[in-house]
Automatic annotation (TrEMBL):
Transmembrane intervals: 273-291, 297-324, 345-366, 378-407, 419-442
Family: Belongs to the SLC41A transporter family.
Gene from which this protein is expressed: mgtE
Keyword match Membrane: yes
A single GO cellular-component term on record: plasma membrane
Record's protein name: Magnesium transporter MgtE
Membrane topology category: Multi-pass membrane protein
Function field: Acts as a magnesium transporter.
Quaternary structure, from the entry: Homodimer.
UniProt entry keywords in alphabetical sequence: CBS domain, Cell membrane, Magnesium, Membrane, Metal-binding, Transmembrane, Transmembrane helix, Transport
Gene3D superfamilies found in the cross-reference section: CBS-domain (3.10.580.10), MgtE N-terminal domain-like (1.25.60.10), SLC41 divalent cation transporters, integral membrane domain (1.10.357.20)
Chain ranges of the CBS domain: 187-243
Subcellular location: Cell membrane; Membrane
Subcellular location, principal: membrane
Amino acid sequence: MTPTSTDVNLRDLRHKHPNDIAETITELNVKERILAFLLLPGDMKADVFTYFNHTVQEEILKELGSTETANMLENMAPDDRTEIFENFPDLLIKESINLLSAEEKSIALNLLGYPEKSIARLMTPYYIQAKKGWTIKQALNNIKRYGKKAETLNHIYVVDKENKLVDDIRIGKLLMAEEDQTMSSLMDYEFVSLTTTMNREEAIEQFNKYDRAVMPVVSESGVLVGIVTFDDIFDEIERRDTEDIQKFGGLEALELSYTETPLLTLVRKRASVLMILFLGEMLTASAMGFFEEEIAQAVVLALFIPLIISSGGNSGSQAATLIVRAMAIKELDLRDWWYVMRKEVFSGVLLGLILGTVGFLRILLWQQAGFYDYGAHAYLIGLTVGFSLIGIVLWGTLSGSMIPFLLQKLRLDPATSSAPFVATLVDVTGLIIYFSIAATILKGTLL
């Protein structure tokens, strides 16, 4: 039963996390949703609004009056506001920005002016800075004056006369110092920063490399312009990983979440890749047609086709998954292709021997137990299946591990070497390997 506004005790909700409040309000119908949101305290609206999905955000903004919208956007963190604007229609962005005060409007336009995938789009201009000649007392007074609006107080950023970043000092170090000491006495001039034009992928690497909760953002000339916190980077990591998983699953990445994506868009994203895979699998039929005579002479070979091609596809998908993930976390790069190839050759042979031995023994045991009669040449059929599995698993492992390197060399996303693509490739080539080995081993007997 759908909850109504009377079911939602807003007084109790106010003591919950903004995300929990947003989830509760989202479950209401449209009219009750707007009413429940309007009944929230003014300072809470901005926090709750950022946790709604894009559809609900747009719906609420269209229903709110200009004054209410202006107050909410004014109280919103600049990085959250920029992320919201990125997903809105141009007309709604223009209308919303025009409601802001001159200062906030300038900040919003500045952030939206950076390249779409740059780290600057995620930064906030609210942080605490100090001059190197200041005393500790002056720095602490500055914190008391501007700290309430700052995104975080983990670090104090020290700048020179031109506002260029020269150091960052942990707040704990500042609190332990004497009030008459100068900021320069605490400085070691060792800091890490991001540049405004750096793409978000590189920024994620920097956060991981230096294990930081917050990092300053500077212009190309070194001027401090903002900071980026880990919660913003975490959201970006989640989006990136979601996109990679979708690509690896054999579909185009979705711009919106699954629940927000229209049906026709979802079908279009999936159909394009399915058509390519379907055309690729048609080559499997062509390969079987080429070996039609061999199949006619030894129909028993057809029994093991699903076993053979699935083993190759599975081994290839495993290898592709391992390599793509290792590339994503920078464990591997292009220079490591030879190391990976050598390792995967041994892996492929060992895995193939394991599956080949199982396949060989299965055929002999079924023959001996009377579960199936493979004829007088069951031993040779077992060898055919065993050696085919070794060759196909080795080929699948090599294909799955090398295709990501090839795509990266061509400046394409390695995630597009998805499991379905690798499986399709190995299906076609696996049949050729299987029947070629069968023609060699069974020549003069069944063939």
